[in-house]
């Protein structure tokens, strides 16, 4: 047990050093949600009306969720690079605890998500977003978003292991991101979409998480969405954790 | 016996990457795996470093089974693969310290050993620079250094000097010799005969996944028939007469290569035979461009062994 923790922290340290030393990647992952925020706040948002709510308060929690999701894409690329370069071979020949390579990477991801989220909170407030809830609900909402991002790290890990190639990993990672981000209530209300899309758009994991986060950050009743959001995150975590560990075991064979 | 491989088979789809491979490696010795590309050298190394599981047969390192005791076995071995698997965005020291941590050394120990390894591989000055600023030779040294941080009993090196300049190659060879002097067992793959000749106590020649020869460098050379006397005539017209002279002296049919105007026969008496042959050629007024004793190189052995196999394969439908 202690070796698992120690090895995982070692891997997290390695990946954090890599993140810090490729500032361009860090900037890109922060700029992307910032652009989305500015685009919809100032360019397209004027055309969208949300009953009973200002659009900026509607939009910003979704940008928070996007910010923790986008960074994960670099994980699948990075892991595919490690597989290709032979670093994973070296790791696997060491007596290090097996899950540490993946778990450490997701911890580094989580640290980056905290940073991205902090930047987006600052930017959100700068463009007019306001928290309307108590401190407990706000912290809860932000933790829910981080938890969602963490669960998705394992999906990106799985994509990296399955593609084994940085370019393919990048393409494969964008697809679920776009589907979840745009076929959702993140940017426009689901009621504006065609009927056949509404069921998916309302109940898919990102929408449910955004709904729960909005409710928590606004101080509205959140229980209904919160349980669904937690269930989604837990299910995604468990499924992709199992898939990733299985793929990792067989990655080289 | 540090390395024991018994009847190992590994298939990838319908190809047999390893076909019933059996070999032994003694403690404190260098075992070189030789073979053309695709012979199965890397596959065998990957099985012994627990990266692949054999489909049949078994393999043990230091008495531990690669499939059943993989966890404990990994503490005994060091592995440097074909490509320098070091992290470009970390410094040399960070790379080594992390590998030490993952070998479960305690912090004081891995820090001390990282410093030692850096010193030994003359990387002390570059220790705190990012590896992306290193030259190819420095990376390779760091890579081998990383494999040594836990002082492994068995070191696996997959083509350790491929792509290195001659001087760095020589450095790496010296490191390997030092380690072996200290009792480390080394198994390496190489495509370079001079590397095998310089380092290896034992050579295993693999071709198409099978062991086609196994022995010492001298032993393999003997199999090819030992030294030969070689004469190159100045004019093609006298090739036949030269062959007759050598055939009479050696008591065997000489080998004639008309393209290169060469005649050769095996010899066991070396210089004495050379002098006799020189006198006879002079008496017969046969002008030569070259006359000498040639020892077979490991290249000859290798080409003879793998060439024979290639011909066999072409012969069978």
Q: What does this protein structure show overall?
A:
The complex is a heterodimer of chains A (253) and B (317). Helices cover 80% and strands 0% of the residues of chain A. By secondary structure, chain A is mainly α. Chain A has one domain. With 317 residues, chain B is α/β, with parallel strands linked by helices. Chain B has two domains: 3-222, Rossmann fold, CATH 3.40.50; 227-294, Alpha-Beta Plaits (2-Layer Sandwich). Chain B has helices spanning 41-48, 70-76, 92-102, 107-120, 136-148, 166-181, 193-199, 217-223, 239-250, 271-283, 298-315; strands spanning 3-12, 15-25, 30-34, 56-61, 64-65, 77-80, 154-158, 185-190, 202-207, 210-215, 228-233, 255-257, 262-266, 288-294. Chain B has a six-stranded mixed β-sheet, with helices on both faces. Chain B has a four-stranded antiparallel β-sheet with strand order 2-1-4-5, covered by helices on one side. Chain B has a four-stranded antiparallel β-sheet with strand order 12-13-11-14, with helices on one face. In chain B, a hairpin with a 2-residue loop joins strand 9 (202-207) and strand 10. Chain B is elongated, with a radius of gyration of 24 Å. The model of chain B is unreliable at 313-317 (pLDDT under 50). At the A-B interface, helix 1 and helix 5 of A face helix 2 and helix 3 of B.
Helix/strand layout:
The complex is a heterodimer of chains A (253) and B (317).
Chain A lengths: L1 H20 L1 H22 L10 H16 L1 H14 L1 H7 L6 H27 L8 H29 L2 H17 L12 H9 L1 H14 L4 H28 L3
Chain B lengths: L2 E10 L2 E11 L4 E5 L6 H8 L7 E6 L2 E2 L4 H7 E4 L11 H11 L4 H14 L15 H13 L5 E5 L7 H16 L3 E6 L2 H7 L2 E6 L2 E6 L1 H7 L4 E6 L5 H12 L4 E3 L4 E5 L4 H13 L4 E7 L3 H18 L2
Parallel strand pairs in B: 3-8, 3-9, 6-7, 7-8
Antiparallel strand pairs in B: 1-2, 1-4, 4-5, 9-10, 11-13, 11-14, 12-13
Helix pairs in contact in B: 3-4, 3-5, 9-10
Kindly estimate the percentage of residues of chain A that lie in beta strands according to DSSP: under 5%
Query: Would you tell me the overall average pLDDT of chain A?
Result: 91
Shape of chain B: elongated
Supply the CATH architecture of the largest domain in chain B.
3-Layer(aba) Sandwich
Name the helicity range of chain B.
Answer: 25-40%
How many domain units of chain B? Answer: 2
Helix content of chain A: over 70%
Low-confidence segments of chain A, given as residue ranges, are none
The value of Rg of chain B in angstroms is 24 Å
> What is the chain-wise order of helices and strands of chain B?
EEEHEEHEHHHEHEHEEHEHEEHEH
Q: Please count the beta strands of chain B (DSSP E, at least 2 residues each).
A: 14
Number of DSSP-assigned strands of chain A: 0
| Spatial strand arrangement across the major sheet of chain B | 6-7-8-3-9-10
Overall residue-averaged pLDDT value of chain B? 87
Round the Cα radius of gyration of chain A to an integer and report it.
19 Å
Our count of domains of chain A comes out at 1
Shape of chain A: elongated
């Amino acid at each position: 047990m202690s070796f698992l923790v120690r090895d995982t922290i070692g891997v997290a340290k390695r990946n954090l050093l890599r993140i810090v030393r490729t500032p361009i990647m860090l900037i890109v992952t922060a700029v992307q949600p910032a652009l989305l925020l500015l685009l919809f706040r100032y360019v397209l948002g004027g055309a969208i009306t949300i009953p009973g709510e200002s659009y900026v308060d509607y939009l910003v929690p979704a940008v928070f969720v996007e910010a923790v999701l986008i960074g994960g894409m670099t994980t699948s690329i990075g892991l595919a690079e490690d597989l290709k370069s032979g670093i994973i071979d070296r790791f696997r020949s060491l007596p290090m605890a097996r899950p540490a390579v993946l778990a450490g990477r997701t911890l580094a991801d989580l640290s980056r998500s905290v940073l991205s989220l902090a930047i987006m909170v600052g930017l959100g407030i700068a463009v007019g977003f306001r928290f309307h809830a108590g401190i407990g609900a706000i912290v809860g909402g932000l933790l829910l978003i981080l938890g969602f991002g963490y669960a998705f790290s394992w999906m990106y890990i799985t994509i990296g292991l399955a593609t084994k190639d940085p370019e393919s990993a990048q393409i494969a990672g964008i697809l679920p991101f776009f589907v979840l981000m745009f076929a959702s209530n993140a940017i426009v209300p689901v009621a504006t979409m065609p009927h056949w899309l509404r069921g998916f758009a309302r109940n898919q994991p990102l929408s449910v998480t955004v709904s729960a986060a909005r409710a928590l950050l606004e101080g509205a009743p959140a229980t209904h969405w919160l349980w669904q959001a937690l269930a989604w995150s837990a299910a995604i975590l468990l499924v992709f954790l199992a898939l990733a560990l299985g793929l990792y075991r067989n990655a080289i064979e | 016996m540090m390395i024991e491989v018994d009847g190992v088979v590994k298939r990838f789809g319908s190809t047999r990457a390893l076909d019933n491979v059996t070999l032994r490696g003694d403690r404190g010795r260098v075992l070189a795996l030789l073979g053309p590309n695709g012979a199965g050298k890397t596959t065998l190394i990957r099985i012994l470093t627990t990266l692949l599981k054999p489909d049949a047969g078994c393999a043990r390192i230091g008495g531990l089974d690669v499939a059943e005791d993989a966890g404990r076995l990994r503490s005994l071995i060091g592995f440097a693969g074909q490509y320098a698997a070091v992290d470009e965005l970390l410094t040399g020291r960070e790379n080594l310290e992390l590998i030490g941590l993952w070998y479960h050394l305690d912090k004081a120990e891995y820090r001390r050993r990282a410093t030692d390894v850096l010193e030994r591989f003359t990387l002390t000055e570059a220790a705190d620079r990012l590896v992306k600023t290193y030259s190819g030779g420095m990376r390779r040294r760091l890579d081998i250094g990383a494999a040594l941080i836990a002082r492994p009993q068995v070191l696996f090196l997959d083509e350790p000097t491929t792509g290195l300049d001659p001087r760095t190659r020589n450095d790496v060879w010296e490191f390997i010799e030092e380690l072996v002097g200290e009792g480390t067992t080394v198994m390496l793959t190489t495509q370079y005969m001079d590397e095998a000749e310089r380092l290896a106590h034992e050579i295993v020649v693999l071709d198409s996944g099978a062991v086609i020869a196994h022995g010492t460098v001298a032993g393999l050379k003997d199999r090819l028939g030992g030294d030969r006397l070689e004469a190159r005539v100045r004019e093609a017209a006298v090739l036949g007469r030269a062959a007759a002279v050598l055939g009479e002296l050696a008591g065997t049919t000489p080998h004639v290569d008309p393209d290169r105007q060469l005649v050769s026969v095996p010899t066991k008496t070396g210089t004495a035979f050379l002098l006799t042959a020189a006198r006879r050629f002079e008496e017969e007024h046969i002008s030569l461009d070259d006359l000498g004793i040639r020892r077979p190189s490991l290249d000859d052995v290798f080409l003879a062994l793998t060439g024979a196999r290639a011909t066999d394969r072409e012969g069978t439908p």
